[in-house]
Amino acid sequence: MGEKREDSASVTRRTFVGAAGASLLAGGAAIAQAVPEVPNRAVGRPRPRDLPAEPLPDDRRLGFAVVGLGKLALSEIVDAFGVTRRARLAALVSGDRDKARRVGARYGVPEDALYGYEDFDRIAGDPRIDAVYIVLPNGLHREFAERAFRAGKHVLCEKPLATNVADCEAMIAAARTAGRKLMTAYRCQFEPHNLTAMRMLRRGELGEIKVVSADIGRAADPTDPSDQWRLDRELAGSGSLFDIGIYALNGARFLLNEEPVEVRAQLFAKPGDARFAEVEDVVAWQMRFPSGVLFNGSTSYSYAFSNSIQVIGTGGIMTFDPAIEYHAQRLRIRAGGQDRVIQWSPIDQFAREIDHFCASISDGIPVVADGEEGLQDVRLMLAILEAGRTGRAVATDWGYRRSADPATTVPDGQGVA
Ligand code: NDP
């Protein structure tokens, strides 16, 4: 289990000791344990001390094919398989055979487990693959999810689930037809700061919540291939809202554990900025929740990197800043006359998310962030864009309720069942 550090003048330091008997991190020092020698496992970053149990033996772990070897896959996901305890990296799918070979050689994926997009359907006959992890541009998620389900595999799909409602619904239907699981890769729902905040809010520790605000954006670089598809409406869906604004939306929803009933928005792109020929730049939006909580947020592909979420209640304030980092979230809580900073030791959110998906497949526990959860965000983002285009409020009370609340489904600080 992860460790949590609280800095406060008025609160004694507390240690959150888990199954592994973790101790307080001195000064936030990074964990630097040696990677244990485990045969046939991907070599990843050092194993965090927070994972409570030893990895399952290889033959009991589920095999994953990672589809699309871009920035996220190569910087985070293939390494995450080095610290998962229920999953193993079994195959790679790429349009670039040489890259796949290089990555395969580094992570121990054999040549006969390297697939291209054309021969992807051959995974149906590969018993080493139980599930695929789709890390492709958003507009390709549906095609590869449907092909994976037809091949009889489970699908973990990066956010946003797809670029439109019809594609999300088709993916959900394909999962049902195939009798396989679909999960949207919302890593923050397995992240200890977020889990801590969710539980505090469920217990009413900030009193009655009044306002949530969030600003999440960055400057898109049109010379970066990884950003080029993000500025293409067909591949991206929309601009920063579908890419990183989605964290503000999804975060507000899971922190509050309720769904917005109305959205309003304004859109802006500076005339002449070629980046925004097809997608929005700034989206500033409001949401009203049934409890009366108001959300106010923005996202942009042209402002400085911004990454914060704040919740204000009658009894206190909680601030995530940064809110969506891969390894270094920070949560400040000012409530009850105390001012605390909670900082868990670095953990691998992707490994937790993958292990949770494995648990849902193998043990039948409910999937946190299932396909419906991904659909809800896509539906809401499209409503926000509609509100921005029309200047009118858009009603969003479609009756959706999440099937599994991470606050009660994901073990504290673990994310693995
Ligand atoms: P990249 O552009 O870096 O990688 C995408 C990869 O997809 C490419 O490298 C390429 O891999 C493959 N690909 C196949 N067809 C195309 C195409 N037509 N255009 C471009 N690439 C193609 O993107 P990211 O890795 O940053 O993002 C991938 C997905 O992950 C997105 O859905 C994004 O929203 C999500 N994401 C999630 C994050 C999170 O924290 N959960 C963070 C970042 C991204 P190859 O060369 O192997 O064929």
Could you characterize the architecture of this molecule?
- With 417 residues, the protein is of the alpha/beta class.
- The protein has two domains: 58-187, NAD(P)-binding Rossmann-like Domain (Rossmann fold), CATH 3.40.50; 192-346 and 371-409, Dihydrodipicolinate Reductase, domain 2.
- Helix content is 29%, strand content 21%.
- It has a ten-stranded mixed β-sheet with strand order 1-15-14-13-12-8-11-10-9-16. A six-stranded parallel β-sheet has the order 4-3-2-5-6-7, with helices on both faces.
- The longest helix is centred in the C-terminal third of the chain and has 20 residues, at 371-390.
- It is globular, with a radius of gyration of 21 Å.
- The structure holds NADPH dihydro-nicotinamide-adenine-dinucleotide phosphate (NDP).
- NADPH dihydro-nicotinamide-adenine-dinucleotide phosphate is lined by residues 68-73, 94-96, 99, 135-138, 140, 158-159, 185, 187, 226, 229, 243.
Task: Provide a quick synopsis of the model.
The strands form two sheets. The chain has a ten-stranded mixed beta sheet. It is of the alpha/beta class and about 425 residues long.
List keywords for this structure.
417 residues; alpha/beta; Rossmann fold; Dihydrodipicolinate Reductase, domain 2; 2 domains; six-stranded parallel beta sheet; 11 helices; 16 strands; binds NADPH dihydro-nicotinamide-adenine-dinucleotide phosphate
